[in-house]
Amino acid sequence: MSTTEPARKPRGRQFFANPGPTNIPDSVLLATAHQTVDFNDPNFIAVYEACVAGLKRVLKTQQEIFLYTGSGHAAWEASLVNLLSPGDRILILESGYFSLSWAAMAQDLGLAVQSVAADWRRGVDLAALREALAADKGHGIKAVCVVHNETATGMMIPLPEVRAALDATGHPALFLADTISSLGSLDFRMDEWGIDACVGGSQKGLMLPTGMSFTGVSAKGMAAHAASTLPKHYFNWTNMLKRPHRSFVGTIPVSLFYGLQESLRLIEQEEGLENVFARHTRLAKAVRAAVQHWSGNNGPQLFCLNPARYSDSVTAILMPEGYDADALRAVALQKFNLSLGGGLGPLGGKVFRIGHLGDLNEPMILGTLATVELAMKTAGVPHTPGGVQAAIEALA
C-alpha cells in the first residue's frame, strides 16, 4: 500500500489571476442566477434592449450589434463569414498566439491570408503595414484584422494608428478589430477609430461567465455583408435581422443578460467607464513595477519590450533560461491556491501571465504579486526580492 499522502487543497478562497475568464463580481453571479423566462416576454425584452444599448456605449458606437451564444472565437467566425467571400484576401497584423489563431480560422474558411510579420516582444511595425497597403494597387486586400490587445504576449496595438495607415494609403479595406481582452478594460472607440467590425466576449472586462459574444458592425461592414457569399446559417446577420431581437438564431441565453445588466451598472454607474480604464492602468503599472524589480539577479522579466505597447489588462512574464513557467504555476496553485495564466503556443513553459482585468483592486493585485514572489522563492527561481514593495510604490 502506498504511503504517499494525498495532495491537500489549500484553504481559503482561490486567488484567480488568469487573463480570462476573469473574476465575476458576486452581484453579477447573483444576477445570472435568475429563473428561466420566455425570451419573448416584454419584461425580458426591456432588459435585453437596455443591455444592447449599454454595450453600444462601452463600444462607443451607434451602429449595429449582433450577439451569439459562443465564445469570442464564435464572434470572429461570424465576422469573417458575414463580411467576406471565398478566396478573398485578408491582411492580419501578427501579434502573438491569437493573431495566428485568427489566420488559421480564416484559412479553414477558404480565405487567403497575408500577414504583417512581427517580433512578438516588440510588436508590429506599422510602417510595414503602410508598405503592404500601398503595394496593394489593385485593392485585393478586403480586410485588415488586428488583435487590439494580444492576451498571449501582454501587448496592445494602437488602433488609431492602424486607421491612420489605411487612410494615408487610401486603402478601402474593412478594418476588423478583436476587443476580447481590451473591451471594458482599455479605451475603445469603434466609431471614432473607423472600425468596421469588432468582436468581443462576455468573460473578460465585462465580468460575466463565458458563453456570449458579439460583433459591432459599421454601415460599410453591412454593405460588405450584403455582397458576401461565404456559407453561413447560425451566424447569418441577415437571418438575425429578421428576428425581434436582431440577433441570435435560436435560443437566447437569458440568464447572461441579467448578469450583463448588472455588469453594465457596475461599470457605468457605480464606477464610471473612464474610472474603470484608470483603475486598469494603475494596477497594470503596479504589476509591471514588480516584474521589473524581480528581473534583477537574472530573474523573470516583462515579455513585452515596447513600453508604448504595454497592455493594461494582462502582463506576460518571461522566465529565466532553464526555468519552467508551468512548474512555477503548479507551485503557486497547489501550495498557495493562486491560479496564473500559462504561456500559449510557442510560449508554453516559457511564460506565465498575470491577468489584471475585470473585477479586481489593489489588495487583490498585491496579494497576487506577494504569492508569485513566494512561489518563486519556494521553487528556487532566481529573482530580486521586494517586487511587492515596488508595486506599492507604484500605487502610492
UniProtKB/TrEMBL annotation:
Q: Where is this region: Disordered?
A: 1-20
**Alphabetized Pfam families for the sequence:** Aminotran_5
Q: Keyword check for Transferase, yes or no.
A: yes
The cofactor named in the record is: pyridoxal 5'-phosphate
Molecular function terms from GO: transaminase activity
- Keywords, in A-Z order: Aminotransferase, Pyridoxal phosphate, Transferase
Q: Boundaries of each Aminotransferase class V domain copy? A: 19-294
The family classification in the record reads: Belongs to the class-V pyridoxal-phosphate-dependent aminotransferase family.
In terms of PANTHER family, this protein maps to:
ALANINE--GLYOXYLATE AMINOTRANSFERASE, AMINOTRANSFERASE CLASS V
Q: What is this protein called?
A: Aminotransferase class V-fold PLP-dependent enzyme
